[in-house]
């Protein structure tokens, strides 16, 4: 084993964080679960992240081979992903100091999100070891949807593509964008999809799941799980629910939206009320990952209406529970679905098509059962242990 020690950078979000205003999302799951799986294979891993609570310990030992290290950078509280860029230099200096004081050595730097990548470039220059870069989301694609160009970030991503030793894409679409839009040679890009914890996310009896979350036993539960931001296309989902209600007034449907409340959720609540579907749509708030399997299993379908999605971990989790997932064809996870599962694919910003796809699953029990069984089979090879094995293969020159 040529590589033994990994310095993992997750600057803007702590993979252990459950603070009220913390940045929670797929990056947290990806970083922590992949690191845990690698540590169980004998790799020694330190995850460096920005401290947002002075009362929390600086070093948290997850297991004998894995630590999460919180270092100060700017104010000791949660800040947006845009503001931490001002504290990168301070954070980088604190990493170098920590490494020096602890007499640490690493064989590889793995950086997640562009802010971590900028730190990784400085650390690599100091330690003279390879840098693997995983963007998770791309500024050029985000700009395509939100029309809000962050040229500083775009320039940083071009720089990281040029100077990183390897670029890890989370899907085939992600690879294509990095190659074509960012001029990255194909030989430098490798796909490493997210995994899923198959011991936690697995099918359970629907009635028991519904009772555990106080959902109506006769209601057809439609679920969304994720960050509540414009990219997720939740307004399209609300329009689709309005269409379903209008066309099928006797159908007992409900939509539960799970995710940290945000300024976008406030806008969506106003839209929900304007559409007169308040009794059909519930904003649940954030749910602990340990309770998510009950929500997935209680649902008839999970909907991922994203206008841009590098992959879609929540869809993977739902599929592992045997729950059909309707996703837009722009999401990375859509590539797991073949032609016979076209019923589960919709186009972005198309509420009429989305409503038809949802209605088909809710009214055709045989098709629903078949789809649930087949999507569960599709993710059985995507355990975090298998994803870690693929990462190990990337370590060879």
Task: Please tell me about this protein's structure.
The protein is α/β, with parallel strands linked by helices and 397 residues long. The protein folds into two domains: 204 residues, Glycogen Phosphorylase B (Rossmann fold), CATH 3.40.50; 173 residues, Glycogen Phosphorylase B (Rossmann fold, 3-Layer(aba) Sandwich). Helices cover 40% and strands 17% of the residues. It contains 14 helices and 14 strands. Strands 3-4-2-1-5-6-7-8 form an eight-stranded mixed sheet, with helices on both faces. Helix 1 crosses helix 14 and helix 3 packs parallel to helix 5. The protein is globular and about 65 Å long. About 2% of the residues have low confidence. It comes from Candidatus Daviesbacteria bacterium RIFCSPHIGHO2_01_FULL_41_23. GO terms for molecular function: glycosyltransferase activity. This is Glycosyl transferase family 1. InterPro entries: Glyco_trans_1, Glyco_trans_4-like_N, Glycosyltransferase_grp1.
């Amino acid at each position: 084993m040529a590589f033994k020690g990994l310095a993992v950078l997750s600057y803007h979000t702590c993979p252990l964080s459950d603070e009220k205003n913390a940045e929670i999302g797929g990056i947290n799951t990806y970083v922590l679960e992949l690191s845990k799986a690698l540590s169980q294979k004998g790799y020694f891993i330190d995850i460096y992240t920005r401290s947002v609570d002075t009362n929390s310990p600086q070093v948290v030992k997850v297991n004998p081979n894995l630590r999460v290290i919180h270092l100060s950078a700017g104010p000791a509280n949660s800040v947006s992903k845009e503001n931490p860029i001002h504290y990168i230099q301070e954070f980088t200096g604190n990493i170098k100091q920590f490494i020096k004081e602890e007499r640490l050595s690493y064989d590889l730097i793995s950086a997640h999100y562009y802010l971590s990548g900028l730190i990784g470039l400085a650390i690599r220059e100091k330690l003279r070891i390879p840098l693997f870069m995983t963007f998770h989301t791309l500024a050029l694609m985000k700009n395509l949807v939100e029309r809000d160009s962050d040229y500083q970030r775009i320039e940083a991503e071009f720089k990281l593509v040029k100077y990183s030793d390897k670029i890890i894409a989370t899907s085939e679409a992600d690879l294509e964008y990095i190659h074509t839009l960012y001029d990255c040679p194909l030989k430098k890009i490798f796909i490493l999809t997210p995994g899923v914890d198959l011991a936690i996310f697995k099918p359970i009896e629907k009635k028991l799941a519904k009772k555990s979350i106080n959902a109506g036993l006769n209601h057809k539960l439609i679920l969304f799980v994720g960050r509540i931001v414009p990219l997720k296309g939740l307004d399209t989902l609300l329009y689709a629910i309005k269409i379903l209600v209008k066309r099928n007034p006797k159908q007992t449907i409900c939509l539960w939206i799970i995710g940290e409340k945000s300024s976008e959720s406030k806008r969506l609540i106003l839209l929900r009320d304007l559409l007169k579907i308040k009794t059909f749509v519930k904003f649940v708030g954030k749910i602990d990952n340990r309770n998510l399997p009950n929500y997935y299993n209680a649902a008839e379908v999970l909907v991922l209406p994203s206008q841009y999605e590098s992959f879609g971990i929540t869809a993977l989790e739902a599929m592992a529970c045997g729950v059909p997932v309707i996703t837009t064809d722009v999401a990375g996870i859509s590539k797991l679905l073949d032609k016979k599962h076209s019923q589960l694919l919709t186009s972005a910003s198309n509420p009429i098509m989305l409503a038809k796809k949802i209605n088909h699953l809710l009214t055709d029990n045989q098709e629903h059962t078949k789809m649930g069984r087949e999507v569960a089979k599709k993710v059985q090879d995507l355990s975090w242990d298998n994803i870690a094995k693929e990462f190990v293969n990337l370590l060879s020159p």
